[in-house]
């Protein structure tokens, strides 16, 4: 899903704006993907996404516009389960959508070394020395610095 959005970012920027399917349609596709990757998408959005992508493909005037929905259509055909995970479960299986990613600490692996807590730029990790730590999901900015610093593999992404 994030990959389709990445390619659509390019298309929206590069469109000449001459025809409405490319100028307006790709912006609407991008908005729908933004909604889905931020965890606010619905099943109806998936139907609209596929429908709009087909319309753009059939009605755009140039090669860029006609091929711009291909990443969306291709990923929907081959990775529909990922779209469903974004919409139904509010999670990103590939861990590419920051809004849908959460970091956790496995209390069985955490030794309470405090290294992750000291590295966290927003102080989202709390815990005493030699006691398993906890990440506050509301404060966490999902930067990943805690995973990079943890020597015990106690931090994981879900």
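^ structure tokens above, recovered residues below v
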């Amino acid at each position: 899903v994030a990959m389709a959005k990445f390619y659509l970012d390019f298309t929206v920027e590069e469109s000449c704006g001459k025809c409405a399917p490319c100028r307006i349609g790709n912006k609407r596709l991008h908005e729908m993907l933004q909604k889905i990757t931020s965890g606010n998408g619905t099943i109806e959005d998936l139907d609209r996404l596929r429908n709009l992508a087909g319309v753009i493909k059939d009605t755009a005037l140039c090669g860029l516009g006609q091929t711009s929905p291909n990443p969306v259509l291709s990923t929907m055909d081959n990775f529909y389960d990922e779209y469903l995970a974004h919409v139904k479960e509010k999670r990103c299986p590939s861990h590419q959508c920051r809004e849908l990613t959460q970091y956790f600490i496995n209390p069985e692996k955490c030794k309470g070394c405090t290294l992750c807590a000291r590295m966290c730029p927003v102080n989202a990790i709390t815990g005493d020395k030699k006691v398993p730590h906890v990440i506050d999901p509301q404060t966490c900015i999902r930067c990943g610095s805690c995973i990079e610093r943890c020597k015990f593999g106690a931090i994981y992404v879900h």
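The two ends are 16 Å apart (CA to CA).
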